Amino acid sequence: MHRSYQPLKPVTNRYLQQRWDQNKYSDHRRKVTSALPVVDTRGMRTPAHVQLKLKKLQLQNERRSTIDRDNHLLASKLANIMTSKGLVDHRNQYNLKSLNADKRREEVLLVSRQNQAIYQRITSRQSEYRHQLWLDDWERAECRRDNISRYPHGLADKQRSTRKVKFEINDSSDASTNGTREHVQVVRLF
User: Fold this and answer.
1) What gap in Å lies between CA 141 and CA 119, rounded to an integer?
2) Which of 25, 34, 139, 154 lies at 20 to 30 Å from 18 by C-alpha?
3) What stretches of the chain show up as alpha helix (H) in DSSP?
4) In the beta sheet, which residues pair with residue 181?
5) Is 170 in contact with 186 (CB distance < 8 Å)?
6) Whole-model pTM?
7) Angle at CA 111, nearest 5°, toward 105 and 114?
8) What is the pLDDT of residues 151-161, one digit of tens each?
9) Distance of CA 147 to the CA centre of its chain
């Protein structure tokens, strides 16, 4: 293998030169692996009070204590249920008590009295409309309409119920000035 080795400088013995170069290279690699940095790149040490987080530990302890207390209460209730005959108070008959029920009742009574008073005033009042004048005017208008009309008023209603109407459409085309056709409808009554 020393015969294929090509040193950088001319040498008399390639084998020795290869051994020396390998020793230098292994020393160099050992020094590189054991070298320490010249610049200190380590961060600041975190203070102990930040690492411990005493407040978090205190909150966790309080949470655990409340959970333990609740568990103890539940266990005592379950034990009480197991030792008793199994009667459970499941009736929820509570009387609702309102603090201002009397005041609301008084307000409702006051409003109902006021409404009754308004109703009495409205019903006791005479109408200001001249109803008889309207009726007389309507009768005069009916007489005028009957006098003006070609047929009597009742006859038209009788004819309307018995009359049958058939439509017949005839298209007649007349050439007008602009060359368009006009359609005229002829309606015949049978």
Assistant:
1) 36
2) 34
3) 14-34, 48-52, 54-83, 101-124, 131-148, 153-162
4) 175
5) yes
6) 0.26
7) 140
8) 666 665 665 55
9) 69
